[in-house]
């Protein structure tokens, strides 16, 4: 077991060259936000936006458009019923699917489209209800992504892996990751008060920081967006994921110094300052 340290941040976060533009910092599509869970996809999108992705699109229920644009006019909107979603997916570097997705028929159709159209050049991050789908229907497990990152909390991992929470040991978790993704490049971010990160070839990593002020709805949605932001800009690899997990908790710890509870949106708001500090 290795511990993630602060040193991961300057290793991953790069100073921006003057001669660059939005096209150099990645394209991301975030999919989620049913009628009742619009906040989840907005919080995920803010995690991506504030970690610096060049171009961000959100595919969500139309009812979420005004709220999304009132908070974040930088983000492009796509109605998740729009058939053009199929054409949009191949243009992306990274796709995050799941925050507030729900388990309705549109969500199911989107999962099917995603599984069929994802390519080896892309990173796919699956969170929340996207994990419910792949647990129930193995045909929805993506086969062709360059990297798949799954971000369950312990209960979601229990549903997906069939390993009950007390039995979620490192060896059981890696075995389950290999069983679910036998041929794919896959990373498991198993969220808890000390999140563990597993890949198929490296030893497990534990995140030593974070605090209970972070036990607020939307905190994991925000993390999924930050992982999306980091992989879109800094590459679809384990270090980008580790840095995203660490900076999410680092922001949470800084906020908790003077606050009883940490709001997910405040974590996102702190990211540009933290990234500026660690950019190398
Ligand atoms: N503002 C919003 O729109 C929000 C929407 N959300 C969406 O709500 C849907 C359901 O998500 P839930 O996570 O509540 O789903 P679940 O109901 O599957 O899991 C939550 C339950 O799991 C249990 N649990 C055990 N260990 C846990 C751990 N380490 N971390 C968290 N929970 C643990 C807890 O009892 C908790 O109530 C998702 O689509 C999610 O994205 C949530 O993200 C909250 C905020
Ligand atoms: N007690 C805690 N200490 C540290 N981190 C925590 C604690 N409780 C929750 N978190 C973090 O908050 C996030 C919660 O994710 P998740 O349960 O998916 O939230 P949501 O679905 O509401 O967005 C995870 O990143 C987890 O590590
Ligand atoms: Mg969650």
From TrEMBL:
Transmembrane segments: none
Quaternary organization: Homotetramer.
Cofactor(s) the protein requires to work: Mg(2+)
Catalytic reactions of this protein: (6S)-NADHX + ADP = AMP + phosphate + NADH + H(+); (6S)-NADPHX + ADP = AMP + phosphate + NADPH + H(+)
Gene3D superfamilies per UniProt: 3.40.1190.20
SUPFAM superfamilies: Ribokinase-like
Chain positions recorded as (6S)-NADPHX binding sites: 40, 100, 153, 221
Gene: nnrD
Binding, AMP: 191-195, 220
Protein name per Swiss-Prot or TrEMBL: ADP-dependent (S)-NAD(P)H-hydrate dehydratase
InterPro entries tied to this protein: Carbohydrate_kinase_pred_CS, CARKD, Ribokinase-like
Job description of the protein: Catalyzes the dehydration of the S-form of NAD(P)HX at the expense of ADP, which is converted to AMP. Together with NAD(P)HX epimerase, which catalyzes the epimerization of the S- and R-forms, the enzyme allows the repair of both epimers of NAD(P)HX, a damaged form of NAD(P)H that is a result of enzymatic or heat-dependent hydration.
One MF term in the entry's GO annotations: ADP-dependent NAD(P)H-hydrate dehydratase activity
Species this chain originates from: Lactobacillus helsingborgensis
Keyword Metal-binding: no
EC number per UniProt: 4.2.1.136
Keywords of this entry: ATP-binding, Lyase, NAD, NADP, Nucleotide-binding
Key word Nucleotide-binding present: yes
Location of the YjeF C-terminal domain: 5-278
């Amino acid at each position: 077991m290795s511990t993630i340290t602060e040193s991961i941040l300057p290793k991953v976060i790069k100073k921006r060259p003057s001669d660059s533009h939005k096209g150099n910092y990645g394209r991301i599509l975030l999919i989620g936000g049913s009628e009742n869970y619009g906040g989840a996809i907005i919080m995920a999108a803010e995690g991506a936006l504030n970690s610096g992705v060049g171009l961000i699109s959100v595919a969500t229920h139309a009812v979420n458009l005004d709220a999304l644009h009132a908070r974040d006019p930088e983000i492009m909107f796509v109605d998740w019923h729009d058939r053009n979603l199929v054409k949009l997916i191949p243009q992306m570097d990274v796709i995050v699917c799941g925050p507030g997705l729900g388990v309705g028929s549109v969500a199911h159709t989107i999962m099917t489209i995603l599984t069929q159209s994802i390519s080896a050049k892309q990173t796919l991050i699956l969170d929340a209800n996207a994990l419910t789908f792949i647990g129930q229907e193995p045909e929805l497990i993506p086969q062709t992504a360059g990297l798949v990152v799954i971000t369950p909390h312990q209960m979601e991992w229990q549903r997906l892996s069939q390993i009950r929470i007390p039995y979620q040991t490192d060896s059981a978790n890696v075995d389950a990751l290999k069983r679910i993704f036998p041929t794919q490049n896959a990373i498991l971010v198993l969220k808890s008060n000390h999140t563990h990160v597993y890949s198929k070839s490296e030893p497990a990593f534990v995140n030593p920081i974070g605090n209970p002020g972070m036990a607020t709805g939307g905190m994991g949605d925000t993390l999924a967006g930050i992982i999306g932001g980091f992989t879109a800009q800094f590459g679809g690899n384990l270090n980008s994921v580790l840095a995203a997990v660490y900076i999410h908790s680092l922001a949470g710890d800084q906020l908790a110094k003077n606050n009883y509870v940490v709001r997910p949106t405040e974590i996102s708001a702190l990211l540009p300052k933290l990234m500026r500090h660690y950019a190398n």
